[in-house]
Design a protein that fits this description.
Length: 313
């Protein structure tokens, strides 16, 4: 059994082709298949996601557009409102109008949902998307040419803090225990990919044939409490491997794994979603967070404030 401390890593987001590399990197977290990534593997990986309808992973990529024609911006707003009035859940597109600068953004899944609703406004944007996301999806305008009144922009082009809050997305990879991950995935405006105990078999060589657990930050190593926690985790590991040897699948044997079991959780959200995360998990605006949540959230908050000094508070 391996014991490690909780940690986090801010991941660099590649905006090329709608963030297709971000999508692959996040998606491979679920099966811990990072070793299968190659220079040209992202296209096939994304096609596989779309074929299997695993569209949630596409939320880790995004596209941002500046619109020169106000009527297009209004068409998007009207299209989203029409969906609400029809009782449908509208795609999670973000819209800002700061000093007559019209910007619309969204993760790739949101854009595909927008195109799938056959919205007339979709025809202005679909020509700007990489074919790997569009071809074969059955969209009416999948062969449309890019509309010159709609221009793709990037994070560096966002100047106003309100624009950054809405359109600038950041990805963080957490290494935490399963209890903390259960709390973090409650932030519904975020997008998630998580190491799966259904498909990860910790008896495999790539996991060194052992489970990994997160050390509780509130237990000193030389105390009886720590010794008791460690013994229980080791007992759970023994039971897990015994159940695998008995013939259970990993998704069945995982029933005995402790809450302390390590998981990797990839979270992507715009800066507004991250601000809400910090309000709850680092700033204690609704009361103290779990100590192991604060263990990663507090230093991450300080790092975000340094990266985005006029936006994150």
């Amino acid at each position: 059994m391996k014991i490690i401390r909780a940690s986090f890593q801010i991941e660099e987001r590649n905006e090329l082709r709608g963030g297709i590399e971000n999508i692959e990197r996040a998606g491979r977290t679920c099966y811990k298949s990072d070793g299968k990534s190659t220079e040209n593997s992202a296209d096939g990986f994304v096609r596989g996601l779309i074929k299997r309808k695993h569209l949630s992973v596409l939320e880790h990529g995004d596209m941002i557009f500046e619109i020169s024609d106000r009527h297009i911006y209004e068409n998007v707003a009207e299209g989203l409102q029409f969906l609400r009035d029809s009782g449908k859940q509208p795609p999670m597109l973000e819209m800002t109008n700061v000093n007559q600068r019209y910007i619309v953004s969204g993760n790739i899944r949101a854009w595909l949902e927008f195109f799938g609703y056959s919205s007339l406004a979709g025809r202005y944007f679909i020509g700007h998307f990489d074919p790997v996301f569009i071809q074969g999806m059955g969209f009416i305008d999948e062969d449309a040419e890019p509309d010159p009144r709609v221009q793709q922009i990037h994070y560096v082009d966002l100047s106003d803090p309100l624009e950054k809050l809405a359109h600038l997305r950041q990805t963080v990879r957490f290494t935490v225990d399963r209890g903390v991950s259960h709390e973090f995935v409650r932030h519904r405006k975020m997008s998630f990919c998580q190491e799966s105990t259904r498909y990860c078999n910790y008896a495999d060589e790539r996991f060194d044939r052992e489970i990994t657990v997160i050390r509780p930050c509130y237990l000193d190593e030389d105390t009886e409490g720590y010794a008791l926690w460690k013994r229980q985790c080791m007992s759970a590991e023994t039971a897990y491997f015994a159940l695998l040897n008995f013939g259970l699948l990993p998704q069945e044997a995982r029933a005995v794994l402790p809450t302390s079991t390590k998981t990797e959780l990839v979270m992507t959200g715009n800066l507004r979603a991250w601000q809400h995360f910090f309000d709850l998990r680092a700033k204690r605006l609704t009361g103290a967070a779990h100590p192991q949540a604060e263990e990663v959230a507090v230093p991450l908050h300080e790092l975000f404030k340094a990266l985005y000094p006029n936006t994150i508070i």
